Amino acid sequence: MTIIQLEYLLAVANCGSFSVAADHCFVTQPSLSMQIKALESELGVMLLDRSKKPVVPTEAGEVVLAQAREALKEYNSIKEVVLQFKGEIAGKIRLGVIPTIAPYILHKFIPEFVSRYPKVELEIREMQTEVIVRELNSDKIDVALVAGGTCGEEFTEYELFDDRFYAYVSPSNPLYKKNNIQLTDIDMRELLLLSRGNCLRDQVLELCQSRSAFPSRYYFESGTLDTLMRIVDCTNNITIIPEMALEYVPKERAHQIKSLIKGAYSRKIALAVRRTYVKHSIVEALQRTIMDCVVG
Predict the structure, then answer these.
(1) Are 173 and 291 in contact (CB under 8 A)?
(2) Residue 209: what pLDDT?
(3) How far, rounded to the nearest angstrom, does the alpha carbon of residue 60 sit from its chain's CA centroid?
């Protein structure tokens, strides 16, 4: 049994496909298949059910995979400990970012991070929270930039900063005349929300204490705040936007931004990692860079 065999087994279990796993591991499919067959032969059990599409672990495979994850964690921690001893921050980190954060702050810290840590390979993907949770659990990404408290208790969060909520109001809406808006003032029929799967949608509905369906003259499946704001501009509607988006509202539209009063309506921005994740030095470096470049 070798570390390579365990890594290949885990890759197939995560990807559900021998060919995709081979690409992920930068090897040919025959080489990967041969190593897994050798592991099964040594253990005397089938670890993967190849008749299923996608490929799934057998009952014995689930048991072996649980141990393999622990073994690989300890194996990788050796490299991490040695790098820390040498004072080096190096390696690869795969970052997931939710769509309501990515457009507003990625460009602020990525150039600085790359400059500070040239030995770190940074891979970034934009995805919704539910996909981030799945990708973290299947080891397809290492860390995620999310709204705090949205990933679950099995993850460790490194809090970065608070991001307040504001209303973005059409000049045709009665609330436009107010400088400060209470949530109770908002007519839910006029509130435009992000599509399902965006955690900001759930947070806004929670603030408004209304998760049930409500009638509206407009219904949009939009994953971007920009689209919602453009729709507000040409209707009499309202939407909720985070503070980090304010500087990207055109100056001629800044008068449509209204504060929310009576309560600290905000979300916490955080880095989320699996509790078993071992590349702590890279995560801490990422955290420091974001705090320096975004928070100031």
Answers:
(1) no
(2) 63
(3) 31
Q: Looking at domain 163-266, does it have CATH number 3.40.190.10? A: yes
Specify the higher pLDDT residue, 92 or 101.
Answer: 101
What's the CATH class of domain 3-84? Answer: mainly alpha
**What's the pLDDT at 57?**
94
Look up the pTM and report it.
0.76
| Region of poorest pLDDT, from 8-12, 33-37, 47-51, 88-92 | 88-92
The reply to whether domains 3-84 and 88-161+268-295 share a CATH topology is no
